[in-house]
Amino acid sequence: MPVDLPALVLWAWDRDDDLSFIDPRDTAVAYLAATVILRGETVFLAPRHHPLAPPKGTRLVAVAHVEVDRHEPPVVSDAQAREFAATLAALRENLPGEFLQIDFEAKSSQRDFFVKAVAALRHRFPDAVLSATALTSWCLNERWTQSLAVDEVVPMLFRLGPDRRRIREYFADGGDFRSANCRTSIGVATDELPAAIPSGRRIYAFSPRRWNAETYATLRERIRQWSDASRLY
């Protein structure tokens, strides 16, 4: 399914962000709807705590953030994958948002489980738009995200660790993600905006601090610079 959203989407974490300054004509909001916790054989759900108050008419995406219990890791069985899918389906049905985005930094041992859970969710909603965030390395060095039954994969081009400089230079030289389903959107952070990103992407933006008008204006100016630079190639 094509993802019909504005070119800029702000990630709104579970904070009392004031989003009254955004322009809903060209900016959407992907808000943390709930945190899904995988523990042992079970799936727990922690709902959002803070209210969300974007301007009237703002288009919304419900985000399910997935965490793994460190002391009691999930068994990642087929039964748990089905329960995980059922939990995500309930979020998809009951919370405001045009579609559901899943934020899960799955380890290698959890990826088959994740793929099965998303396939089960897709079976429930064959015509729904589904999205997933991804580590940059998944889209640069691996191809397993192509097995996810989602319409959009959003590689997060921030918090890159020791490879940060090399990856940024790669994109500054005109590089792109190798996985095709990673080439429609990209995630950036306001405190480490890159010098260049691949052209033609929907931009999801994360702010480590509360959103404000100044941060929003700075982000939009950098997006204009990226757009101007892409016309030179």
Verbal overview:
Strands 1, 2, 3, 4, 5, 6, 7, 8 and 9 form a 9-stranded mixed beta sheet that branches. The chain has one domain: Glycosidases (TIM Barrel). It contains 5 helices and 9 strands. Helix content is 27%, strand content 25%. It has helices spanning 78-94, 111-124, 136-141, 164-172, 213-230; strands at 8-12, 27-39, 42-47, 60-68, 100-103, 130-135, 152-156, 185-189, 202-206.
What is the chain-wise order of helices and strands?
A: EEEEHEHEHEHEEH
Termini gap:
29 Å
Q: CATH first level: which class? A: Alpha Beta
The second-level CATH architecture is: Alpha-Beta Barrel
- Sheet bearing the most strands, described? 9 strands, mixed
The CATH superfamily title: Glycosidases
Low-pLDDT runs of 5+ residues are: none
CATH fold category name: TIM Barrel
Q: Helical residue percent?
A: 25-40%
Which whole number gives the mean pLDDT? 93
Class from helix and strand fractions = alpha/beta
Shape: globular
Total domain units? 1
By DSSP, the count of extended strands is 9
If helices are DSSP runs of H or I spanning 4 or more residues, what is the number of helices?
A: 5
Question: Rounded to an integer, what's the Rg over CA atoms?
Answer: 17 Å
Strand content: 15-25%
Write the layout of secondary structure elements.
Elements: E1 8-12, E2 27-39, E3 42-47, E4 60-68, H1 78-94, E5 100-103, H2 111-124, E6 130-135, H3 136-141, E7 152-156, H4 164-172, E8 185-189, E9 202-206, H5 213-230
Parallel strand pairs: 1-2, 1-9, 2-4, 4-5, 5-6, 6-7, 8-9
Antiparallel strand pairs: 2-3
Helix pairs in contact: 1-2
